[in-house]
Specification:
With 480 residues, the chain is an alpha+beta fold. It contains 12 helices and 15 strands. It folds into 2 domains: 170 residues, Chloramphenicol acetyltransferase-like domain (Chloramphenicol Acetyltransferase), CATH 3.30.559; 254 residues, Nonribosomal peptide synthetase, condensation domain (Chloramphenicol Acetyltransferase), CATH 3.30.559. A hairpin with a 3-residue loop joins strand 6 and strand 7.
């Protein structure tokens, strides 16, 4: 058996009927031109006939009950994994549009995983208009994070449109890292030595973590002098209790458009993403007479996984930045976001890499304690909304000759945070996935439309007339 790390185990601890802690991806493919009518049926059959199931797909909880999840969470191999249960073939009424697909994925993402089985599902969805189909996968966040999930899927796909006989995702093993310098196979002396090193590291990191925590406390008192602190965002419409049903919407933009704006404004791509999301949220809340006087804040996951690490599990830290939703002027809003993220990056960069995991637990422990104690959504949130940007493959990819047209992340939400916005880049586009509480955000698809209008507005403000692209048409993708 393999024990879970502290951060991975925390996702199991906060699992509830209203807050299932799984994440997903929705991939849209176009069928090969010469595909027979039985292409998808044959593909699903072939997927289920794989001879070996790799980690983490074969792992299930050693003890599936609540106490087992909370007290001693560990993985063991499921030797009798039932692929007929985990791999499902669905169909939209032809011709199914993006709206119908969004409705189905919203429903699928609302259903919790079975904790007596390996914590994943894969749905092949046919009947999408324009000769396309979708592949929706979901896996518990204790098993995988956004970066490792994209890397795992990327290894399944091929750059060759003619490649056939490809393995399904669950037959692909993450690449093992070569032992780093000084590492060796486990022995009793080496394990004892590592344990002593771990204790020494904890002691050495205490002063560093104390200084980091003190900077956040000082920032709460003097926001202009340091990184945005936890608990400084207001309580808004999206920061109350949530129910179990989800709503999913999508939007996508050419990556070059966003990069040009970043260059013109001397900012980063992430700053432009935050600006679009903050501007859309400001308009959305203004229309509902629920815009707080103080600015909303965003919790931004930061990847701390080494570039060559193909492992699974969670390897993220967090930074918090303002969305400047109290600023009516768009350019002032953008400059406030840029200044805030620069301070957050500077704060994070002061920490040694060896302290990042401990710092993440320090920063996230109030959030996790809120959820465990039942106070989530009943008090001021740690931050108002999660916004993340996951880098994906930049070349066109294929599976069994079917071209991957788009990848959309489907994320999780919890009490106190009824909205999650995750972006994923692929083949020159940035794809936005909006995951929200169905009861809290009945008109969530407006946010997707408003990001497009915010993009048009910003281009008009900072790009010379000759460089402005045609106005973006509002996407109807994934309305549900």
């Amino acid at each position: 058996m393999k024990r879970l790390g502290t951060l991975d185990a925390s996702w199991l601890a906060v699992e509830s009927e209203d807050t299932p802690m799984h994440v997903g991806n929705m991939l849209i493919f176009s069928l090969p031109e010469d595909a027979p009518d039985t292409f998808l049926r044959d593909m699903v059959t072939s997927m289920k006939e794989t001879g070996e199931i790799a980690h983490p797909w074969c792992a299930k909880l050693a003890w599936s009950g609540t106490l087992g999840r909370l007290i001693a969470p560990a993985w063991k191999v499921d030797k009798n994994l039932d692929l007929d249960y985990h791999v499902r073939h669905s169909a939209l009424p032809k011709p199914g549009g993006e709206r119908e697909l969004g409705v189905l994925v919203s429903r699928l993402h609302s259903n919790p995983l079975d904790f007596a089985r390996p914590l994943w599902e894969c749905h092949v969805i046919e009947g999408l208009e324009n000769n396309r189909f979708a592949l929706y996968t979901k896996m518990h966040h204790s098993m995988i994070d956004g970066i490792s999930g994209v890397r795992l899927l990327q290894r399944v796909l091929s750059k060759d449109p003619n490649e056939k006989g490809m393995l399904p995702p669950w037959a692909m093993r993450p690449e093992r890292l070569k032992p780093r310098k000084g590492e060796s196979r486990q022995s009793v002396p080496s394990v004892f030595s590592q344990a002593l090193d771990a204790v020494k590291l904890q002691a050495d990191m205490a002063p560093t973590l104390w200084r980091a925590g003190n900077r956040l406390v000082q920032s709460a008192r003097h926001p202009e002098a340091g990184p945005t602190a936890p608990f400084v965002g207001p309580v808004s419409k999206i920061n109350h209790r949530v129910t179990g049903q989800r709503r999913f919407a999508t939007q996508h933009y050419k990556l070059d458009r966003l990069k040009e704006l970043a260059h013109a404004s001397k900012s980063s791509l992430n700053d432009i993403v935050l600006y679009l999301c903050g501007t859309a949220l400001r308009r959305f809340l203004l229309e509902q007479n629920d815009l707080p006087e103080t600015p909303l804040t965003a919790g931004i996951p930061v990847n701390i996984r080494p570039a060559d690490d193909q492992g699974t599990g969670t390897a993220i830290s967090f930074m918090i930045a303002t969305l400047a939703t109290n600023e009516a002027d768009p350019l002032t809003r953008l400059q406030s976001i840029i200044a805030s993220t620069n301070r957050a990056k500077e704060h994070l960069q002061k920490l040694p890499k060896s302290a990042l995991t401990q710092y993440t637990m320090l920063l996230m422990s109030p959030y996790i304690l809120q959820l465990l104690s039942g106070l989530g959504g009943r008090m001021r949130p740690v931050f108002n909304v999660t916004i993340s940007n996951v880098p994906g493959p930049q070349e066109s990819l294929y599976y069994e000759g079917a071209k991957l047209e788009a990848m959309y992340p489907v994320s999780l939400i919890a009490h106190g945070g009824a909205l999650n916005i995750t972006c994923l880049s692929y083949a020159g586009a940035l794809n936005f996935g909006f995951t929200g509480c169905r009861d809290t955000l009945p008109s969530m698809q407006k946010l997707a439309v408003y990001t497009g209008e915010a993009l048009d507005e910003l281009e008009a403000l900072i790009l010379p007339p000759k460089r402005r692209p045609k106005k973006a048409r509002a996407s109807k993708n994934g309305k549900a």
